[in-house]
Amino acid sequence: MPALEARNLTKHYGSRAAVQDVSFRVEAGQTLVLLGPSGCGKTTLLRMLNRLVEPDTGVVLVNGHDARSQPPELLRRGMGYVIQQVGLLPHYTVAENVAVVPQLLGHAPAAVAARTEELLRRLHLPPEQFAHQYPNQLSGGQQQRVGLARALAADPPIILLDEPFGALDPITRASIRREFRELPELRRKTMVLVTHDVTEAFELADQILLLDAGRVQQLGPPRELLLRPANNFVRRFFGADQLALQLRVLRLADILCELPDNEYFQPSSISYSVNNPLPSTASIHDTLEKLSHIPAPASGEPTVWVQVSKSTARPLTYPTLMTAFGRAIRRLREGP
Ligand SMILES: Nc1ncnc2c1ncn2[C@@H]1O[C@H](COP(=O)(O)OP(=O)(O)OP(=O)(O)O)[C@@H](O)[C@H]1O
Fold it and tell me: ABC transporter domain spans which residues (predicted)?
């Protein structure tokens, strides 16, 4: 049973449809990204999931139960909500902001304090330094992390995020996104995240729902939207970013069969440790980044090692990697 399901959701404002007949399922622990141009209905759709907006027609199911079967306040206790404006309470300290929901839920004060401290530490906000500060003493990125800590405080199984990194500059944004991806706390959460940033969507999504004018244009794993666009809107939407996105969705495992066999027999040009090979699940993007950081060995091209099977690693050079990548893209585009 999916953790979260939307069935035929529709919402009008006046005579205009903001969301039209949208359905999706999110399995427990998975992340669905709602993506699309400004005004396409992403926020309206997200807010229908926690009943901040009530749909005209359609139904939201949480663990198989109709979201309308419980009062909205109760529903929202099981769903963290993170928004771009962060919405921290200005007269509360960082620790007090994080503790708001568990306190409302009547958790024991000692447990709330321990949880707050743990979360601040995990989100790189050492409590000694930050617990007693006020929101206006923090940078935008720090405030965003407090907002995330607050949404996680009561450990809700589902988290809804509306442009959670939207207010940050691109560099802070990329680094917070990396932290976010690696947070053990979030690995088991079911998440729905709104963004209009294509790279962000590809980094974070298990599934992407691409919307235009309130309607689903395509729903599927990122690589499917990229390699098998359902229509011209989808194709155009990723147009300018095609190559960068392909480098992110293709993994070493996808290109291993495109490598020339003689690569097996060049164990001399080791530079990225053979004892510490890259996993074949690494993206081509991350592999290229690794290659660009290692010094070229005296005798030739820089080489990384890729784990092919449990006992075999093989070296990979920049040109072979790019050739194999090109072949793999063609093969995947042309289909089976
Ligand atoms: N409360 C409201 N009253 C009237 N119209 C609204 C309301 N909320 C949203 N809309 C309209 O519904 C449409 C979808 O808005 P929504 O905020 O869901 O889009 P969005 O994709 O999240 O946009 P953005 O990326 O710019 O935040 C827009 O045309 C918007 O003007």
Answer: 4-238
Q: How far apart are CA 272 and CA 296, in angstroms?
A: 10
Instruction: Quote the CA–CA distance of 113 and 116 in Å, as a whole number.
Output: 5
Centre of ligand 1 from the C-alpha of residue 45, in Å: 10
CATH number of the domain to which 51 belongs = 3.40.50.300
CA of 17 to the centre of ligand 1 (A): 10
84 lines ligand 1 (CB under 6 A): no
Overall domain count for the chain: 2
pLDDT digit string, tens, across residues 125-134: 899 999 899 9
Q: Are residues 265 and 228 in the same domain?
A: no
One domain, residues 240 and 164: yes
Q: How far apart are CA 106 and CA 124, in angstroms?
A: 27
* Same domain? 289 vs 158: no
- Do residues 286 and 237 both lie within one domain? no
Which residue has its alpha carbon closest to ligand 1 atom 8?
44
Show which of 249, 279, 300 is a domain's final residue: 249
Dist CA 153 CA 147 (whole Å): 10
pLDDT of residue 155: 82
Instruction: Give the residue from 249, 280, 299 where a domain finishes.
Output: 249
Residue type at 137 in one-letter notation: Q
Six-digit token string for 276: 């510490």
Q: Is the CB of 42 under 6 A from ligand 1?
A: yes
* 64-75 tens-digit pLDDT: 999 999 899 888
Tell me the best of 43, 85, 209, 212 to mutate to test the pocket of ligand 1, counting ligand atoms within 8 Å of each CB and taking the most: 43
For ligand 1, atom 13: residue with the closest CA? 18
Best residue among 9, 20, 22, 40 to mutate for probing ligand 1, ranked by most atoms within 8 Å of CB: 40
> Distance between alpha carbon 50 and the CA centroid of its chain, in Å?
20
For residues 47 and 6, membership in a common domain is answered with yes
pLDDT under 70 in the chain at which residues?
Answer: 85-86, 167, 260-278, 294-315, 335-336
Gyration radius from the chain CA atoms: 23
